[in-house]
Specification:
The complex is a heterotrimer of chains A (330), B (378) and C (227). Chain B is 56% helix and 17% strand. Chain B contains 14 helices and 13 strands. Chain B folds into two domains: 2-58 and 229-377, no CATH class; 64-222, Barwin-like endoglucanases, CATH 2.40.40.20. In chain C, the strands form two sheets. Chain C has a six-stranded mixed beta sheet, sandwiched between helices. In chain C, strands 2-1-4-5 form a four-stranded antiparallel beta sheet, with helices on one face. Classes of the chains: A mainly alpha (330), B alpha+beta (378), C alpha/beta (227).
């Protein structure tokens, strides 16, 4: 176990976030069990007051998740000095088997929390709480995941033994090796660039179509999620090397460092934003026929599509500009 | 869109005017909050700066040092070992070093004496660190009296004062010629304090170290990376301890904040009741409370950080330097290189703003859900 | 047109201190009319006002606002409707201490999201109307009773509501100011606004502008008829 301020902070942050969501889920269960909009009873009034508390709790949890996702990567990055062979976060995350699961948990939970806020926003626009059951059911999914994230993170930090020899990012994200990351990189250049380009064009076209017609929300959500995965892979495979200006360096974490002007943050933020808004379109799609949302939902979906496209287009634009103006020529 | 922005601006406007209306109360809150941020930020800035400083210094030290061990203690190393080490594949160069400590009874402090080949000095002369220059009132040309191992006096002339730039390290340092060093401590020719080894390929350092250990079992190879890791761990660990101690203070602050937020005065309850009655919605009041909390947090957070910055980097950490640095008579009068990173700010945020915000959620919500008809019922 | 059907409001339901404040009230309030609720204190006037003004939800019964059923709306919608439809004048004025007259007047419009300068203009116009312009930046605790009352009325009007609800508006006013208030009510009526007043002050229910008086006792309507 390493005992640094950042680790204590992440620990505290996770405990706080878990606490917020467990509390929110607790209120959610009460709401799911006793909800009766027709009633003017004091219990119903109390439950309605609790919905405000739940929204507030999740909103704060979402903000904390965003900040701690990056703090976690940053901390892992700083920890690399403790591990022989580790050069950046990629190495310290690999110091025990819990490192990468923490990142995955954190990303999934961030996406889910963002989706919840979208559902919540929409629900608040309908005059009869049209999404209330789905909303609180979703909350019951998120809460255990956040708790799991806290546990996995604890396992990771408690399991850190300084001076363990780990692979540095050069070894982990290089084309020799039998990991997913290695597959992504081996797949690089030609095909993946093509896939990336096609995905983005497809997403844009689909976005315009869904925006205009209001049909095919599920396809757009699927395309946005696909675009999210493809963009991640592309970033590791061929975008990162233009940032590092090194044909062999693929690490997705070093870009978050000062040496690269924190350029990784806009890349990852646009991707996360694009995925959340894009998935939101699909999540809301089944409720288009709900009476209380009829006049409102298409507008919300359109805005989500617009945001999602803006996020992905900005990501693509940044990547293209990076490649054009990089000193690296392949 | 402008609609939403306007609304938030209006609510923020009212939040600020509300805060100013209750100056006394909020001032107390901001003061305590600032103090908490200040204490935590000071610890973090300080350790981080020390780590940086240490890394800077260690960056210049040799990557591999070989010491001779006798009965588990560091001993003089015979120069004959040099050739044996040179035979190991991958070793580029082996250099002997002469250094040690000298106790000056006059000022009751230890000096670090070092023979530096890149800064060769003629015999009978020395260069001294700024700290020594200060306490011995020495300047170029002054003479300083030393007593050799056998009690005989040795007079050395100061040729230069080391620059103050990295005073943390050079404060108690004296550079000396090899001949004077040997005379002062009675070290026979053919022996050195330790050896530094340069290795051609960075990746082979560990292998070379293992081989040295194998061929010369009475030696101890020390890797620079190991020292660095140890330093980092020690600094982080100390900061961790201090923070855990400060968590007590943080907890007290949170209880204070909870109390402030929960103990709404009758006046405030009435105000929120009025707002609700004239058409503010629960969410609007929650936003009002959010802006109030954010204003308080930002003010205290920024103030605390600025004060800590001044404390650590401009005033040289007078409050707790001795705790974290260790202590010495020749305490360096140094300024740390200012360094603040995103992660420090984020860590501070999680220690202060996040718990404060969470502590105020429930009280704010309680206040925001006051029934609008309450003002008419009384 | 506001229609109340079988309105019942119970406080502390199921507890020993259960209290039925309003019981089975049916009432229609005509658009552009002035209606007065009359009855001793504790008769349920104020509770009925809060239910009628969408400030509190009835325990059972229905409210129809321009033929729209609003009883089952969640608070956030009800509040938006209330903010735009009703202006409230309270017995105690209920001004917020420590801030200026004009800020108090503007407060109900803050959640609408209008820009502050536009809002200020609107508030200034209202202050002109009530001769409060010179006091615009004065703090409310320095106002006289009449000025405070007029500030409260200006505040009730800032969102240009269709309905004005007043709870014992003359309770703290002397005869002269009370008559002035009824003059203001007359002007509102002339502008086509609907007005509902709860009062047991003869100056109010004997005023010629009143269209309908509703008598209440123990939470029930006992008589309702033209003034």
């Amino acid at each position: 176990m390493l005992f640094t301020p950042a680790i204590i902070a992440l620990f505290a942050g996770s405990l706080i976030t878990s606490g917020l969501l467990v509390a929110a889920a607790g209120y959610g269960v009460q709401i799911l069990r006793h909800w009766d909009l027709e009633s003017g009873s004091e219990l119903q009034l109390k439950l309605e007051r609790q919905t405000y508390l739940v929204s507030t709790l999740v909103a704060y949890a979402f903000a904390f998740e965003l900040l701690s996702l990056f703090l976690f990567i940053y901390t892992a990055d700083n920890l690399h000095t403790f591990f022989v062979g580790a050069m950046c976060a990629a190495g310290s995350l690999n110091a025990n088997p819990w490192g990468y699961p923490v990142i995955i948990f954190r990303m999934v939970n961030f996406l889910l929390a963002g989706l919840w806020l979208i559902v919540n926003y929409t629900d608040n626009k309908g005059y009869d709480y049209p999404l209330i059951r789905m909303k609180y059911a979703l909350l019951l999914v998120i809460a255990p995941l956040i708790v799991a994230e806290t546990v996995v993170q604890a396992k990771y930090f408690f399991g850190l033994e300084p001076e363990v020899i780990t692979s540095c990012c050069g070894a982990l994200f290089s084309s020799q090796g039998a990991s997913v990351a290695a597959d992504i990189i081996a797949f690089r250049q030609g095909p993946l660039e093509l896939v990336f380009g096609v995905t983005m064009v497809l997403l844009l076209g689909l976005g315009v179509f869904v925006y205009r017609t209001g049909r095919g929300g599920y396809f757009f959500a699927a395309a946005a999620f696909l675009a999210f995965l493809v963009s991640m892979a592309s970033f590791i495979s061929f975008i990162s090397i233009y940032i590092y200006e090194l044909p062999t360096h693929h690490c997705p974490f070093c870009v978050l460092q000062r040496e690269y002007f924190f350029i990784g943050y806009p890349y990852f933020l646009t991707l996360l934003g694009g995925a959340i808004t894009g998935l939101g379109v699909g999540l809301l799609h089944p409720y288009r026929e709900t009476r209380s949302l009829k006049g409102i939902l298409p507008g919300i979906q359109q805005r989500l599509i617009l945001f999602s496209l803006i996020f992905f287009v900005s990501f693509t634009a940044m990547a293209v500009l990076q490649i054009i103006f990089s000193n690296l020529t392949m | 869109m402008s609609h939403i922005v306007n609304k938030q601006r209006n609510i923020l406007d009212f939040a600020l005017s509300s805060l100013l209306r209750r100056k006394g109360r909020n001032l107390a809150l901001v003061t305590v909050y600032t103090l908490v941020v200040f204490a935590l930020a000071s610890v973090m800035f300080f350790t981080q700066a020390l780590k940086k400083e240490a890394a800077l210094v260690l960056g210049a030290t040799p990557e591999l040092i070989v010491q001779k061990m006798v009965a588990g203690r560091h001993d003089l190393i015979p120069l004959s070992y040099i050739d044996q080490i040179k035979k190991i594949r991958g070793v580029a160069a082996v250099t002997p070093r002469l250094w040690g400590y000298y106790y000056d009874p006059l000022i009751r402090a230890n000096y670090t004496l070092l023979v530096n080949d890149t800064y060769p000095l003629p015999e009978k002369t020395i260069a001294v660190g700024a700290g020594i220059a200060r306490v011995r009132n020495a300047h170029r040309g002054s003479k300083i009296n030393f007593f050799a191992y056998d009690g005989k006096p040795v007079v050395l002339q100061v040729r230069g004062i080391l620059s103050e730039e990295s005073e943390l390290l050079s404060s108690d340092l004296i550079l000396i010629s090899a001949a004077d060093f040997r005379r002062l401590f009675g070290i026979p020719a053919g022996y050195a304090t330790d050896l530094t080894v340069q290795v051609r390929n960075q990746k082979e350092i560990a292998t070379v170290a293992a081989k040295i250990q194998q061929f010369l079992p009475d030696t101890r190879p020390i890797l620079r990376d190991e020292i660095m890791r140890t330093y980092e761990a020690v600094f982080d660990w100390r900061a961790g301890i201090v923070i855990v101690v400060l968590l007590g203070a943080l907890l007290a602050f949170l209880i204070f904040a909870w109390d402030k937020a929960a103990g709404l005065s009758a006046e405030e309850r009435r105000e929120i009741g009025i707002l609700k009655a004239i058409g503010w919605e629960t969410a609007d009041v929650l936003q009002l409370k959010f802006w109030e909390g954010l204003s308080v947090s930002l003010t205290a957070f920024l103030l605390g950080i600025i004060l800590a910055y001044i404390h650590i980097f401009l005033a040289a950490a007078p409050l707790f330097a001795t705790v974290i640095k260790g202590w010495s008579i020749l305490y360096p009068n140094f300024r740390l290189t200012p360094f603040v990173s995103f992660s420090q700010i984020a860590v501070l945020f999680f220690f202060t703003v996040a718990p404060y915000t969470v502590a105020t959620i429930i009280p704010s919500w309680r206040a925001a859900t006051i029934d609008p008809d309450q003002v008419m019922r009384t | 047109m506001i229609e109340l059907r079988h309105i019942r409001k119970v406080f502390n339901a199921g507890q020993p201190n259960e209290h039925v404040a309003v019981d089975d009230v049916n009432l229609a309030i005509g658009t552009g009319k002035v209606t007065v609720l009359r009855g001793p204190s504790g008769s349920g006037k104020t509770t009925l006002l809060t239910v009628l003004g969408c400030m509190a939800r009835p325990t059972s019964g229905r409210i129809l606002l321009q033929d729209r059923e609003v009883t089952s709306l969640p608070a956030r919608f009800l509040t938006a409707i209330r903010r735009k439809t009703f202006g409230f004048i309270f017995q105690q004025y209920n001004l917020i201490q420590g801030i200026s007259v004009i800020e108090n007047v503007m407060l109900p419009a803050y959640p609408n999201g209008d820009s502050l300068p536009a809002l200020k203009q609107r508030a200034e116009k209202l202050l002109d109307l009530f001769n409060l312009r010179p006091k615009a930046s004065a703090r409310v605790e320095w106002l006289s009773g009449g000025e405070a009352q007029r500030t409260a009325i200006a505040r009730a009007l800032v969102n240009d509501p269709q309905v004005i609800i007043a709870d014992e508006p003359t309770a703290h006013l002397d005869t002269k100011l009370s008559r002035e208030l009824m003059e203001i009510v007359k002007e509102f009526k002339a502008q086509g606004k609907t007005i509902v007043i709860a009062s047991h002050d003869p100056i109010v229910h004997d005023s010629p502008v009143i269209d309908k008086v509703v008598d209440m006792r123990d939470g029930r309507l006992i008589h309702s008829g033209a003034a």
